[in-house]
Amino acid sequence: MAKQIIDFYWDIGSTNTYFAVHLLPPIAARHDATIAWHPFNLGYVFRANDYVLAEEPRAKLSHRGRDLRRWAEKYALKFSMPSQFPIKTSIPLRGSLTMRKLDLEVPYIQALFEAYWEADKPEIATYAGLKPIVESLGVDSAEFETMSESEEIRAQLAEETNTGMERGVFGAPTFFVGDEMFWGKDRMDFIDDELARKT
Amino acid sequence: MAKQIIDFYWDIGSTNTYFAVHLLPPIAARHDATIAWHPFNLGYVFRANDYVLAEEPRAKLSHRGRDLRRWAEKYALKFSMPSQFPIKTSIPLRGSLTMRKLDLEVPYIQALFEAYWEADKPEIATYAGLKPIVESLGVDSAEFETMSESEEIRAQLAEETNTGMERGVFGAPTFFVGDEMFWGKDRMDFIDDELARKT
């Protein structure tokens, strides 16, 4: 049978996606499923829905911080809220599409989430800030920037975002197994069930 | 050691609370913990926070329905969306405080959730609609109404709601183990962890 695919819609600016980046791969591995990484512009989706995280009720935002620390503790992750949040994420997202062309997508995504969500490096929003990651992967940073600024890559990120919205994406992380959509770091067991159903 | 207490803030009008009413008791039992049931007016809290569920993005509301059906399936619950939703819940909430005085709080709550969330009986919003539940518990329905309309019970529901908000409640279901607050039907494993930590 063909390998199952999990479409993973991610944005480096999404706190909850950080957790999913760590929690999904073991589940995928257990079912020998492939993760198809889809960078998309979550800020664009939020604006389309008139959603502003900072406008949530104060009690909810306060609980959110407590909840995130609990998840970090439960799964022994080095999570810390970055000193700048939110950030513009188009450049690092386009960068992941460049890295896809160079067959370096997964290590780039891992390094990106570690930099922003563990090492407090909000400078990954810029090419200068991405340089250490890019060079550690053996890619020339000027070439990386040229490719990431190309019309082709720009169009590709817009298309990923639009396709996601057409499929029903309204937040991150979002996952699809076939036509079944899952939303949230807290739906891993449902993804697990869905993969098991079809294995 | 004294039994641990789980404060459970619930409103019969909350879809996600229906699931928690089924998922929490086995966890409480495993730790020999007591559930302290706190009815509160979720609509009042939502209005205080300018929150209107129906104004959520269409994609999010559509996914919500899918997610609820998945939970029902996973836990083999007879959940179905009521034909009238939302409803005014002050009367059935005050009714639970009356039943608390009569030592019938838990069977009343169970019957209430079954009526609205399984048997599509939105008439539980009224005394006439509550009558079958009240009488099945051996309580005179006229007496039930008189008690539930009393100033004492009215003040008690307002106080539960205000105390909940002071403690940080912004949605339902919400739980406290000591000062630790948990929100959502999808945080049962964290409550389990918290009880285990203190057992």
Describe the 3D structure:
Two copies of one chain form a homodimer. Chain A is of the alpha+beta class and 199 residues long. A four-stranded mixed beta sheet of chain A has the order 2-1-3-4. Helix content of chain A is 56%, strand content 10%. The first copy, chain A, has a single domain, classed as 3-Layer(aba) Sandwich (Glutaredoxin), CATH 3.40.30. The longest helix of chain A has 17 residues. Chain A is built from nine helices and four strands; from the N terminus they run E-H-E-H-H-H-H-H-H-H-E-E-H. The model of chain A has no long low-confidence stretch (mean pLDDT 96). Chain A is globular, with a radius of gyration of 17 Å. Chains A and B meet through helix 3 of A and helix 3 of B.
Quick overview:
The structure is a homodimer of 199-residue chains. With 199 residues, chain A is an alpha+beta fold.
Overall shape of chain A: globular
Low-confidence stretches of chain A: none
> What structural class should be given to the helix and strand makeup of chain A?
alpha+beta
For the termini of chain A, the CA-CA separation is 9 Å
Count of DSSP strands of chain A: 4
Q: How much strand content do the residues of chain A show? A: 5-15%
CATH fold descriptor of chain A: Glutaredoxin
Q: Which CATH architecture of chain A?
A: 3-Layer(aba) Sandwich
The strands making up the biggest β-sheet of chain A line up spatially as 2-1-3-4
Helix content of chain A: 55-70%
N to C succession of SSEs of chain A = EHEHHHHHHHEEH
- Total number of domains of chain A: 1
CATH superfamily of chain A: Glutaredoxin
Largest interface: A-B, 23 and 23 residues
Assigned CATH class of chain A? Alpha Beta
Largest sheet of chain A: 4 strands, mixed
Q: Could you state the oligomeric state of the chains shown?
A: homodimer
* Radius of gyration from the alpha-carbon trace of chain A, in angstroms: 17 Å
Number of helices of chain A: 9
